């Protein structure tokens, strides 16, 4: 599936080819902290199927407890995350689904990882009352 996306302010834009069946949710503490949310949703793209078409992301190098390093790319202006890429093995871009223009067309994620770090209420989110838009 061909996708394209951008950061929130639009200064960074990209396009990629992805397999929509590989969308996943990560509940690790790093993903929670780096998104400011309960989890992160990402989809991999091989380097030969990923292309920046506008802008240059700022890179944050994160060293995991295992010692492996990951490059987290984000917009230096609006702060929106764009992708993650390892530095020490097969360089696969993990595109942040929230920035994809086609996010609503993707199927539900097929797996969740780091579920031992999942916040307990996430599995009950459908029980929380919802509104179609923000109320005043």
Verbal overview:
The chain has 136 residues and is mainly β. The protein has a single domain (2-119), classed as Beta Complex (Metal Binding Protein, Guanine Nucleotide Exchange Factor, Chain A). It contains one helix and ten strands; from the N terminus they run E-E-E-H-E-E-E-E-E-E-E. It has one helix spanning 29-35; strands at 2-6, 13-17, 24-26, 40-45, 50-54, 58-63, 69-74, 81-86, 93-96, 111-113. A seven-stranded mixed β-sheet has the order 6-7-8-9-4-3-10. The longest helix is centred in the first third of the chain and has 7 residues, at 29-35. The model has no long low-confidence stretch (mean pLDDT 92).
Mean pLDDT: 92
Shape: globular
Following the backbone from N to C, one meets helices and strands in this order, namely EEEHEEEEEEE
CATH architecture: Beta Complex
Number of domains: 1
CATH topology descriptor: Metal Binding Protein, Guanine Nucleotide Exchange Factor, Chain A
Tell me the span between the first and last alpha carbons: 38 Å
Secondary structure category: mainly beta
User: Mind summarizing the main beta sheet?
Assistant: 7 strands, mixed
As a percent range, the share of helical residues equals under 10%
Radius of gyration: 15 Å
Number of strands: 10
Which spans of ≥5 residues are poorly predicted at pLDDT below 50? none
Main-sheet strand order equals 6-7-8-9-4-3-10
Tell me the name of the CATH class. Answer: Mainly Beta
Can you give me a brief rundown of this structure?
With 136 residues, the protein is mostly beta strands.
């Amino acid at each position: 599936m061909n996708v394209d996306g951008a950061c929130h302010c639009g200064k960074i834009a990209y396009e990629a080819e992805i397999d929509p069946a590989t969308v996943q949710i990560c509940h690790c503490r790093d993903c929670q902290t780096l998104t400011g949310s309960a989890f992160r949703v990402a989809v991999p793209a091989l380097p030969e199927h990923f292309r920046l078409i506008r802008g240059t992301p700022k890179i944050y190098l994160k060293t995991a407890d295992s010692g492996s390093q990951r490059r987290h790319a984000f917009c230096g202006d609006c702060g929106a995350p764009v992708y993650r890429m390892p530095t020490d093995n097969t360089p696969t871009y993990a595109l942040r689904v929230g920035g994809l223009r086609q996010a609503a067309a993707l199927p539900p994620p097929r797996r969740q990882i780091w579920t031992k770090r999942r916040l307990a209420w996430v599995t009950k989110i459908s029980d929380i009352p919802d509104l179609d838009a923000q109320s005043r």
